[in-house]
């Protein structure tokens, strides 16, 4: 199989996965919530209005018709109306997704920019005290739940020292005409600092340890021996020869992590009152806002699958050894 | 044959763990935490769900903030027994008495313990014109403090004496819980004379004060008021205009009078001879003591931290730093002091010898909660991991061994699983079904078996081509036999590695769900403690509330990670050469 066919096949697989998840999601919801409008009755909806809502979701039609309608709408990016916000779900989701990604991508990049060189350095100093401390710290931040480190961070920097804002993306009230207007201010960066640190510390462990372990494997390769034999300085061997070859697993991990980040970290957004997609899905669950919950989940799944696909494409480009089976 | 092969494959990882120092530490820490979970009832100092109450000799003073706002501020405690009553000495000081024979003098140097040899509950104190203090209490206790010397006075009966007030420098009136009215005469040797009550039905008399005209007024149960005239040596019924039990009475030198009682009742008399008027108060819980000045300004205190002040127009609830139960007011010169406190809910107490990790917003012991929290964490951690291994290993074995269409279907399923983000999936499960331990374990295990399945399959793929498998097949072994008796023992070390990692993942997952308030209700878990802390809003000050649970989670997961790290040598033999 050649490369093009492999990529096409891989893309079709991704699409199929998304389709299966959407289907599962639909039937899971119909099974768990046969009549989602029951949640609306508490809001004082009259039976006639309720019937209208039922019709707009096609709930009065047979199950297979509902399913087709759901798929049709999902493909067109129309996720219906949020019960809670009384606004189109799609608009809400895109905005929240942007907020989430700004925080997560920043934090993950920070973690990798620090973690990768640090991991390489630890592998060079393997067996020393620095190595042990590094591994210990990496695993420790990985083991500490983010909602806890976030709370501690707020307690120390927000409450006790009082110099970092602890909630939201901007100081309220603010006006911004659009996403980029909102995030291109110093105030935003100030709000971004604490959550970024907390998330980055959590993610720091994986590039650190992966880089260290792969470097240790690469050290055993013949070309390193060769470089040594040539009399190259250890630093050059470390960063020019070994590190480049050890980068691949780290890059893979980076893409997978970013993919999962779209919906992966509800707790951070909750702790820092960050108006992201994760917090939105939690609110949707709390308010039984099923169109919003359903759509948020689908968007997250799509994100994860896309990033996984990109990883594979990337991998096949970077490493010609990957066979297209 | 079959048992040794399993044991042998299980022994290898164990040896690896024991040869790594970090892993041994991890194993030791994990054992401690498991022991903690098993012995939780023995280790916990309190029932984790019980609201803890505490008694305390509490002192609050009235302070003005920078913005002029009034705040009744908590002062250092005087001891472990509640203060029941206080009286001022007219020179900027006073004496407070309380349960278990506690007596304190307040003066320029602050509070000094001047207790005498008794442990009965003291209910009232009165300081006479010549500075003598008369103290009364349970079991007919009467004692006089002259200078620094205590003299006990024999009582006619062991009655519960509730209140005392001086008539003049030598005589005082004492009232009791069963309508005792005793006249104490200190002209020479103390003499106690019982005065006949005009009611005689055994009603409790709770307070007594000297009125502006020299007569004595006592109040008590059912709004009863009795006036004793020292000149006629007779007691007569008076009226306050309320049916509620009255707890406190204060009369200013010019005749302003205030009586307070149950259900937030406050009745007031503007001057001698005027009518008593019931006033509206902002709270309907019991008031225990009141104070009124010559100009009519008044303060009353009661249970649950209630302090109300009358600003000339109406009663207003004042902010107090504590919700303790007040029993007495001491107006010592310019200092206004509220005293208590009976058993009150010990909310948000900092760590102490009684509560090692402090208490939460409902007064529950946090140390015990943390100890019990280990149970849910480990239960979900191990049960979830076990389920994951069961699914993952079997899927991996079957897919790797049979290959073909079976493998395609199973591995495509795994691919789909990789597209599902964990936390949102768990949230959706909880939205659709009720939060419970089962849902938490299901959410954890339904999504984590994917990694295990992939790993095991790749191992099985190479194992199935090995000579020993072929030999077994030639010998006529069935597929099941080959899979579970020949191949499985060889992937066991890998299973152990994954098991260790997934225990850690499960514990964090459970804590995350509980933190979001989606954990099993009515159960205590580390994540749940943090959820409560966040919900109550008090975590920003109560550091003892949110530090320990996270520390426990981190320690447990870290110890599991340490163990799994040593097992990585199995999965990746190339690392072995580098050690």
Secondary-structure-derived class of chain B: alpha+beta
Unreliable sequence segments of chain A: none
What is the number of beta strands of chain A?
0
CATH class of chain A: Mainly Alpha
CATH superfamily of the largest domain in chain B: YVTN repeat-like/Quinoprotein amine dehydrogenase
Class per helix and strand makeup of chain A: mainly alpha
Tally the helices of chain A. Answer: 14
For the CA atoms, what is the radius of gyration of chain A? 24 Å
How many strands in all of chain B?
30
The CATH homologous superfamily of chain A is named: MetI-like
Going across the biggest sheet of chain B, name each strand in turn. 3-2-29-28
Following the backbone from N to C, one meets helices and strands of chain A in this order, namely HHHHHHHHHHHHHH
Pfam families (chain A): BPD_transp_1 (PF00528), BPD_transp_1_N (PF19300)
Organism (chain A): Aquamicrobium aerolatum DSM 21857
Domain ABC transmembrane type-1 (chain A): 97-311
InterPro entries (chain A): BPD_transp_1_N, MetI-like, MetI-like_sf
Explain the overall architecture.
The complex is a heterodimer of chains A (325) and B (579). Chain A contains 14 helices and no strands. Chain A is mostly helical and 325 residues long. Chain A has one domain (89-318): MetI-like (MetI-like fold). In chain A, helix 1 packs antiparallel against helix 14 and helix 5 (89-124) packs antiparallel against helix 11 (234-264). The longest helix of chain A has 36 residues, at 89-124. The termini of chain A are close together. Chain B has 2 domains: 57-345, 7 Propeller (Methylamine Dehydrogenase, Chain H), CATH 2.130.10; 369-578, MetI-like fold. In chain B, the strands form 8 sheets. In chain B, strands 3-2-29-28 form a 4-stranded antiparallel beta sheet, with no helix packed on it. In chain B, strands 4-5-6-7 form a 4-stranded antiparallel beta sheet, with no helix packed on it. A 4-stranded antiparallel beta sheet of chain B has the order 8-9-10-11, with no helix packed on it. The longest helix of chain B has 37 residues, at 366-402. Chains A and B meet through helix 1, helix 6, helix 7, helix 9 and helix 11 of A and helix 5, helix 6, helix 9, helix 10 and helix 11 of B.
């Amino acid at each position: 199989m050649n490369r093009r066919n492999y990529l096409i096949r891989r893309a079709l697989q991704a699409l199929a996965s998304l389709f299966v998840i959407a289907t599962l999601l639909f039937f899971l919801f119909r099974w768990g919530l046969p009549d989602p409008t029951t949640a609306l009755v508490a809001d004082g909806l009259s039976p006639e209005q309720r019937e209208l809502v039922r019709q707009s979701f096609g709930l009065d039609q047979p199950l297979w018709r509902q399913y087709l309608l759901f798929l049709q709408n999902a493909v067109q990016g129309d996720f219906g109306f949020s019960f809670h916000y009384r606004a189109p779900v799609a608009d809400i989701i895109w905005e929240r997704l942007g907020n989430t990604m700004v925080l997560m991508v920043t934090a993950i990049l920070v973690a990798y920019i620090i973690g990768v060189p640090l991991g390489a350095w630890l592998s060079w100093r393997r067996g020393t005290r620095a190595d042990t401390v590094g591994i210990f710290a990496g695993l420790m931040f990985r083991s500490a739940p983010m909602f806890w480190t976030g709370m501690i961070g707020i307690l120390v920097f927000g409450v006790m020292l009082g110099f970092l804002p602890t909630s939201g993306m901007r100081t309220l009230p603010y006006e911004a005409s659009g996403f980029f207007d909102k995030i291109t201010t110093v105030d935003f960066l100030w709000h971004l600092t604490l959550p970024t640190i907390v998330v980055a510390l959590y993610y720091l462990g994986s590039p650190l340890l992966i880089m260290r372990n792969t470097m240790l494997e690469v050290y055993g390769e013949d070309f390193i021996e060769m470089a040594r034999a040539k009399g190259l300085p250890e630093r050059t061997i470390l960063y020019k020869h070994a590190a480049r070859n050890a980068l691949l697993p780290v890059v893979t991990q980076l893409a997978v992590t970013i993919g999962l980040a779209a919906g992966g970290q509800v707790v951070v957004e909750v702790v820092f009152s960050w108006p992201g997609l994760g917090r939105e899905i939690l609110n949707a669950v709390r308010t039984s806002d099923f169109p919003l919950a359903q759509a948020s989940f689908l968007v997250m799944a799509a994100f994860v699958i896309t990033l996984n696909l990109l990883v594979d494409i990337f991998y096949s480009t970077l490493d010609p050894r990957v066979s297209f089976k | 044959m079959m048992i040794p092969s399993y044991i042998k494959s299980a022994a290898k990882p164990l040896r690896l763990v024991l040869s790594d120092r970090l892993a041994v530490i991890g194993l030791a820490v994990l054992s401690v935490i498991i022991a903690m979970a098993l012995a939780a009832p023995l280790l916990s100092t309190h029932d984790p769900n019980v609201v803890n109450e505490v008694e305390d000799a509490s002192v609050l003073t009235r302070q003005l903030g920078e913005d002029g706002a009034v705040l009744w501020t908590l002062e250092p405690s005087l001891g472990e027994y509640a203060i029941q009553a206080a009286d001022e000495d007219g020179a900027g000081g006073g004496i407070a008495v309380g349960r278990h024979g506690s007596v304190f003098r307040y003066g320029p140097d602050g509070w000094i313990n001047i207790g005498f040899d008794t442990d009965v509950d003291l209910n009232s104190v009165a300081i006479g014109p010549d500075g003598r203090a008369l103290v009364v209490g349970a079991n007919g206790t009467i004692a006089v403090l002259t200078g620094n010397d205590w003299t006990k006075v024999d009582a006619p009966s062991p009655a519960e004496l509730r209140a005392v007030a001086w008539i003049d420098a030598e005589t005082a009136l004492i009232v009791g819980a069963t309508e005792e009215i005793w006249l104490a005469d200190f002209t020479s040797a103390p003499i106690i004379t019982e005065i006949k009550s005009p009611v005689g039905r055994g009603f409790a008399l709770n307070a007594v004060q000297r009125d502006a005209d020299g007569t004595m007024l006592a109040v008590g149960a059912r709004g009863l008021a009795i006036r004793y005239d020292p000149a006629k040596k007779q007691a007569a019924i008076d009226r306050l205009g309320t049916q509620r039990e009255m707890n406190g009475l204060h009369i200013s030198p010019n005749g302003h009078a205030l009586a307070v009682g149950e259900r937030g009742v406050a009745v007031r008399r503007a001057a001698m001879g005027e009518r008593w008027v019931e006033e509206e108060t902002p709270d309907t819980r019991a008031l225990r003591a009141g104070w009124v000045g010559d100009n009519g300004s008044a303060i009353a205190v009661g249970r649950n931290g209630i302090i109300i002040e009358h600003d000339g127009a109406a009663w207003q609830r004042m902010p107090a730093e504590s919700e303790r139960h007040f029993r007495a007011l001491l107006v010592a010169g310019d200092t206004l002091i509220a005293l208590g406190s009976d058993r009150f809910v010990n909310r948000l107490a900092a760590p102490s010898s009684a509560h090692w990790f402090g208490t939460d917003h409902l007064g529950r012991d946090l140390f015990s909660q943390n100890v019990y929290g280990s149970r849910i964490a480990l239960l979900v951690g191990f049960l979830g991991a076990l389920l994951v291994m069961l699914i993952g290993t079997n899927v991996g074995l079957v897919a790797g061994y049979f290959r073909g269409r079976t493998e395609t279907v199973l591995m495509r399923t795994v691919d789909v699983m990789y597209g599902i983000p964990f936390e949102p999936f768990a949230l959706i499960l909880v939205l659709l079904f009720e939060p419970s331990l089962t849902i938490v374990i299901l959410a954890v295990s339904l999504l984590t078996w994917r990694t295990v399945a992939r790993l095991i399959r790749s191992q099985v793929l190479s194992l199935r081509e090995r000579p020993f498998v072929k030999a077994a097949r030639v010998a006529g072994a069935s597929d099941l036999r080959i899979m579970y008796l020949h191949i499985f023992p060889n992937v066991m070390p890998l299973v152990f590695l994954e098991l260790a990692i997934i225990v850690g993942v499960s514990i964090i997952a459970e804590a995350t769900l509980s933190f979001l308030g989606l954990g099993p209700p009515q159960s205590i878990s580390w994540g749940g403690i943090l959820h409560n802390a966040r919900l109550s809003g008090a975590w920003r000050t109560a550091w003892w509330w949110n530090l320990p649970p996270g520390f426990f989670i981190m320690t447990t997961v870290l110890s599991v990670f340490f163990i799994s790290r040593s097992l990585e040598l199995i999965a990746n033999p190339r690392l072995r050469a580098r050690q």
